[in-house]
Amino acid sequence: MNFLKILKKTVIDSQIYVSVMGTLFAVFFMKEQNTFRFPTILLIFITYFSGYIYTKYQYTKHFLKILALNAAAGVICAFLIIHNHNEVRLLKWFVIVILGLLYNSFFLDVYIRKIPLLKVFYVGLVWALVNCWLTLWEFNLPIFLISFFFITALVLPFDIRDMKSDTVETFPKMIGIQNTKYIAYLLVFISVILAIFNLKLIYATAFFLTGIITFILIYFSENKRDDTYFSFWIETCSALPFLFLLIMEYF
């Protein structure tokens, strides 16, 4: 039990886990589009990790340390882009970083997280832009829509988890847990259908299998469940396409 608590604190609560999951989600589409490159993977992980720790710790006593860490991360990311890509990708990355800051920043009077019902779609938007725009030469609409609908669906269970503590209106608070699940099911279904018609067969199959597992995990999402159910199992859904792809490719 102590080991599990240490693991949760060092990997999940530190935002490393969600950053890895987001990176693997992007890797799945990079492989499908033949744009797989290790510097890009590192760029995406650092961007996710620095963004999530900034969001979580900006109002704590560790703020100055987090600010310094984010500044260092920004320099590293800029170096990776300049050294391995071009100024266009640097601009794309900068736009995504700005969108992340607009989500929740101490220097803003009104930020996205405070706006009722908008949070789930905004997170889906940012993750989708990483997959369909940052890693590719041109904006890819099918990948954007697949990512957007899927990630938006994954954010809804977190609103179910937080419905008693959220101070803004969310879908579970407004329409109830069961109706929120119905929306999540629909979004996953749309995402899977789009994947089937737009991705190569092995990638579409991996995404289809991911959709099945995601449906099951959404079904069992309840407000009374332990946080680990959401921060580990629900978060893992975004890495499942890549994991299923590996299984089918190598086994």
From TrEMBL:
Entry protein name: Prenyltransferase
Domain of life: Bacteria
Parts of the chain that traverse the membrane: 12-30, 36-54, 66-84, 90-108, 120-137, 143-160, 180-197, 203-220, 232-250
Stretches assigned to coiled coil: none
Keywords (A to Z) from UniProt: Membrane, Transmembrane, Transmembrane helix
Source organism of this protein record: Chryseobacterium herbae
